[in-house]
Amino acid sequence: MTAPEDRARSAFAREFGVGADLAWASPGRVNLIGEHTDYNGGYVLPFALPLRTAVAAGRLDRREWTVWSEVGRAPVTFREADLEPGKVTGWAGYLAAVVWALRDAGIDVPGARLAVASDVPLGSGLSSSAALECAALGALLDLAGADLPLDDWPALAQRAENVYVGVPCGIMDQAASSLCHDGHALFLDCRSLATEQVPFTIADEGLSVLVVDTRAPHRHADGEYAARRRTCEAAAARLGVDLLREVTDLGKALDILADDEVAVRRVRHVVTEDQRVLDTMALLRAGRAADIGGLLTASHASLRDDYEVTVSELDVAVEAALAAGALGARMTGGGFGGCVIALVRTESAGAVEAAVTRAFAEHNFRAPAAFVAAPSAGVTRV
């Protein structure tokens, strides 16, 4: 398949009868560790994938935006009157959201035509929405001739998704899509927004990250995600902190919450997951990537038992990968479907993939898809 930027430019010319003025591309991501910690002000460690979403764009001399996507096929047009949160829905709503967020930030976004092509699979937990938002953000800023520091892109893209689209996501996905460097993972403190580019050249150690798309549909993901966020916010209020990241004595916190078993489990996951991110960072800094496997597996167990966001396909994939020799494995993304990552010896990646495929067949699950992920660069003009 041709690169998404080439497909986006070709589609632009076909749909609109002229060539695009410019194009931007932004990657999907996997999160190595640090799940459901971002909206609790904690730590995350994602890296960008080579899979990208591209937006080809051309300026219009009137205040309207016509957008086309490989997903929707039929063009969608929206105007200034439609730039109210929730008014444009579906895939086009993410593009309207970026226009709205830029204008709300005081940036004079011109009318435009946009064509979208993507290699990031939808609904897989690889952050296709953030990839679309950041690619559109780059294209629209470029058309406007506006200079927005890259460090400000994640918060603006997150605001677009939170307020316009209505998805209460944290900032990790947008940060990964915009800020990641090739060959690095991104350590992000979601409270201070401080970042560190962490070398993640695990191929030099004979290791790979195998990404397994379980192709399990996201079941009740939006409502359950929002419910967990509300539980965490309520627990933080009871504990007298603004964010669960600020809990320093887990035992004491769990004693305070002892009358609410659900809150106990949720808080235990968040606090221990933050520590697992810090422990992973320490091992990577020490050049001991092979030793992070146990932390990945412990993260999955916590997400399964305490945060309760896994489904059977995710659990079976992790179990099969570990049985086939993976050094560690966990679900990645919000859960309720989506992907698993496995840290493997490079020479065993094929055997681990085959073991997961066999396990899925035995459980009568849909066949999974898998690929080895290379840490890649964030958003760029293409």
Automatic annotation (TrEMBL):
Q: Which InterPro entries match?
A: Galactokinase, Galactokinase_CS, GalKase_N, GHMP_kinase_C_dom, GHMP_kinase_C_sf, GHMP_kinase_N_dom, GHMP_knse_ATP-bd_CS, Mevalonate/galactokinase
Q: Which residues form the Galactokinase N-terminal domain?
A: 11-58
All residue ranges annotated as the GHMP kinase N-terminal domain in the record: 94-179
List its EC numbers. 2.7.1.6
Q: Which UniProt keywords apply?
A: ATP-binding, Carbohydrate metabolism, Galactose metabolism, Kinase, Nucleotide-binding, Transferase
Domain of life, per lineage:
Bacteria
A Pfam family that the UniProt record links to this protein: GHMP_kinases_C
Chain ranges of the GHMP kinase C-terminal domain: 281-360
What the entry lists under Gene3D superfamilies is as follows: 3.30.230.10, GHMP kinase, C-terminal domain
The record, for PANTHER family, names: GALACTOKINASE-RELATED, MEVALONATE KINASE/GALACTOKINASE
Tell me which NCBIfam families the record gives: gal_kin
Family listed? Belongs to the GHMP kinase family. GalK subfamily.
Name of the protein in question: Galactokinase
- Native species of this protein? Luedemannella flava
Question: What is the gene called?
Answer: galK
